[in-house]
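cron nightly-structures :: item 1 of 1
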Amino acid sequence: MKNKELLIEAVIENLEKFQSEKKLRNELKVESIEHISPGDLLKYIKAPQDYIPNLDISTIYYLAKYMNVVKADTSLQLDKYFTAREIKEIETTYDDESLSRTEKAPIELPYTFHNVIKVGEGDYILKTTGRIMTDFMNSHILQYNQETQREARMVRDRNDPNNIIPVPKVNKKSVREISKLAKEGKLIQTVITWNARLGSTDDEDGEELIYNEEDLTLTVTNGTLLDVVDGYHRLQGVSMALNEVPDLEVNFKLNILNFSQSQAKKYFAQLNTYNPVSKARVRELSEEDFNDFVLNFIMNEFNDFKERITHRGIAPRQDALTTYSTLSDAIKNNFEINNKAEAIKTGRYLIKFFKELFYSFPDQFLGDIASVRRNSLINTSSMFVGYVTLAKIMQDNDIELDNITEIISDIDFSRENKEFIKLGIIDNKGKITTDSKTKVAAYFAKLNLDNYVKEKGVK
């Protein structure tokens, strides 16, 4: 780089200009969303001195690039700080540093396994090699998913010290022992379990796995997310062994599931009954209704949403928006879902709804949530029952989602709202009542949305 320190100074200086310019903030959010999440962007704008010096150079590059697009500020012209080659390298590199856009992965989807036995619905087993499973890992198709594992090690992101991220909790000694056994030919052919996450495929038929009973083939379709449910240490150990002895022959029995995350958690819990399951996850491990599938689908696809959902109660100063059970119950009470196709359709609609809501009011839903909540009810947990109710009403009446800004702006969310007090949503001190959820749902159900409903035949 020509001068990283000067670039950081310029980015910080320009970000501070966005703090008081809401219109520009929204423009920057739209421009940069492909490379920077709105939640992260808001953090960078609010406290650039705290975040920018610790970011990786690619993120700083994109911040400068998109601020320059929005403000056309010559102090952020990229060629002042980057060579043409550096710009090309950043622009043509995946977020994952180990795979470039021009590098061909050893495994690509769709992928077909042969000699597969169907054990039950969404449950298959076959014999495969350690090499194939390692290739799946190296291709970044197979992944560790902390949502279906019992433990993860929480570490600080080296690019953002304020961000805590989960990483696999690996026993290195165990991995080395497995590698040694594999190289000595003494590793037992145990069962490795993967989960083709339900609702993750890009296949037009909506199926993650396609099984052909006649030729015993199982095809993992394009876009499907494959999670390691059981056997992560063994895969790591075999991968280590194959790096040292590439022609090593190691075979495994591979069990491939096609479960939702809640089903996968339940499966994993049964494999490990000697360890108590956290009470915060009891419902997820046992609930089989489609409303949980829809909620998990939303959380998987909308990270800014997922990060603000908790499985426990919400403390006054906590920057969580609502609880898993509150949202799940609200979805169940408003949407009639009878099969997976309907569940996926509902999930996609609610993702669009909540993105429109969050990005229309970023300070309230993505910023200092606890601070906003001191004076406003807009991001309190009970209000999300109302938002889900509103989503269903808008869907039923074909009301465009871009009307959310105006609909929500017309509601008085202050803790002095006399109507909310009269309805029993809050008490005389402005505190949410214990039975507020039903009353919030009733309030949103009675909103007059006639002005937003399209007349029949009018587009």
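cron nightly-structures :: done
DSSP finds 21 helices and 13 strands in the chain.
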